[in-house]
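Input record, target 12 of the design panel.
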């Protein structure tokens, strides 16, 4: 299975998790929902490692990458949810959706060379994801540009943080493996989130009726990141990050399907661009 397919699996899992996050975030708070996602991830991965007898690999020279992976994951998630909560979505979503560009630029700077078809695939997929996210908010009243500054800063910060998360994972996986990288990264992310909850005096409690959905959301979330890690080794690993970034398009499509929301011609055009981009990447890898 090449990097494109891992990216598709990652996008589907993460997009579905974010769809559920819209429900749990409004019900119990975005930071509390994120806490439970991390708890489910840690429990699931710890259980798997003990049952499977997964070996532990310690390489002090690369511990920085896992620490960075975990810390920046929490930073990215918190900034993203805060930007979306503040709005407008038409400003926040497109900025965050463009984060794979930074990953590609980083890989290119290190010597990775992509062909013309691959560059076109990256351009089409990224543009399509941005169009889908933007079209989903076209019906919302615009906010004066003077008030968009904090949202732009938060969204840009989340995009940079996501790019750092992906790059850190790509450095850690060849040494520690996908499972251990994910396991240690999620533990660090959970530990990083706790001080934020204490400082903001956010209650960690969640009503029992929300536990099943939170468990499903957490499983999909760490599954999506795990698929991303599976594709983060070998040549053209940055392609996995680009395809996985289409999780926003998956979230919007699920909202359209289950909430019967109208899809404009502009949004359909974005969806088509997404699949054309994925087809280009598949044919070139």
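The sequence produced for target 12 reads:
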């Amino acid at each position: 299975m090449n990097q494109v397919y891992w990216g598709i699996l990652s996008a589907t899992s993460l997009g579905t998790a974010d769809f559920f996050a819209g429900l749990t975030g409004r019900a119990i708070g975005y930071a509390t929902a994120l806490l439970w996602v991390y708890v489910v991830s840690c429990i699931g991965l710890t259980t798997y490692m003990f049952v499977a007898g997964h070996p532990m690999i310690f390489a002090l020279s690369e511990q920085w990458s896992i620490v960075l992976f975990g810390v920046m994951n929490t930073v990215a998630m918190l900034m993203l949810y805060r930007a979306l909560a503040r709005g407008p979505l038409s400003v926040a979503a497109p900025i965050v959706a463009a984060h794979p560009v930074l990953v590609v630029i980083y890989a290119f700077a290190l010597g990775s060379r992509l062909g013309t078809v691959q560059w076109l695939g990256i351009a089409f997929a990224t543009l399509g994801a941005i169009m889908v996210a933007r079209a989903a908010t076209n019906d919302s009243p615009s906010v004066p540009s003077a008030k968009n500054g904090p949202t732009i800063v938060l969204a840009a910060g989340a995009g940079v943080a996501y790019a750092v998360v992906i790059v850190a994972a790509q450095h850690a996986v060849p040494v520690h493996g996908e499972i251990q990288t994910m396991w240690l990264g999620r533990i660090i992310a959970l530990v990083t989130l706790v001080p934020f909850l204490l400082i903001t005096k956010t209650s960690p409690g969640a009503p029992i009726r929300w536990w099943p959905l939170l468990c499903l959301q957490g499983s999909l979330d760490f599954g999506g990141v795990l698929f991303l890690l599976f594709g983060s080794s070998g040549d053209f690993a940055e392609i996995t990050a680009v395809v996985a970034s289409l999780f926003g398009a998956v979230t919007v499509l699920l909202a359209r399907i289950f909430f019967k929301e109208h899809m404009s011609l502009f949004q359909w055009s974005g969806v088509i661009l997404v699949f054309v981009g994925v087809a280009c990447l598949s044919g070139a890898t």
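Residues 24 and 33 are 6 Å apart (CA to CA).
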